[in-house]
Amino acid sequence: MSVSHNTRPKDIMAWWNSRHAGRMEYHAAYRVLRNILGDALDEQIRQFALLPAYIRRIEQEDIGSYTRLKLVGTRFSSLFIAPSFCRQAWQHLRPVVCVDAAFTKTLLDYVLIIACGIDANQQGINLAWGIVPKENGLHWEWFLENLKEAFPTMNCGTTILMSDRQKGLHRAVPRQLGRVQHAFCCKHIERNLVKQYGKEIVAPYWAVAKAKSQPLFQIALGELSAINER
To answer: What are the Cα distances from residue 120, in Å, to 84, 90, 117, 134, 181?
Structure first.
């Protein structure tokens, strides 16, 4: 079970009661939660304070790496890391880059961003990653600006960058990587459509996405439009 500042005592109770014969009372769950949060938060603050030294160590040990550390005053804000072997690997990969973000499982609110490539065997290769305070247009631009600096040949007309359309990313890409071809992940679009129209839209949606000719596309689009009009 992952515990964060959004975890409630009843979440602790439900987790405990599903795994043990005895039942946990509310006040016991509250004390457990307070103890976990206090200890974990202090430890995570200590660990975040070590990040500047961690970046310096990477720069010393991995000469060809590209790193950036952003501070607001003396406080940690964001970091970007592209190890040298990842930068070297890019020239041997397919010209496809996938970027996405996820919340870190920490008590401090940060977002992990990852950029991945694809090799000839269809295996994903991590190229760079970063930590930013929020997933929004400002921080996506900061990450993509450093991605462009770490991989100068990426920003060209033959590179395809695939992403979702969340949190300002669809605006940040043309601003920082204006020469790439920006594509959107079909699975993300599918999930958004299912939320609005239900599972019946899945089959006609994929028929549209995978249509290999104009006639097939028009037929599938007609079926998709019919569901939209219901």
So the answer is: 20, 12, 10, 33, 20
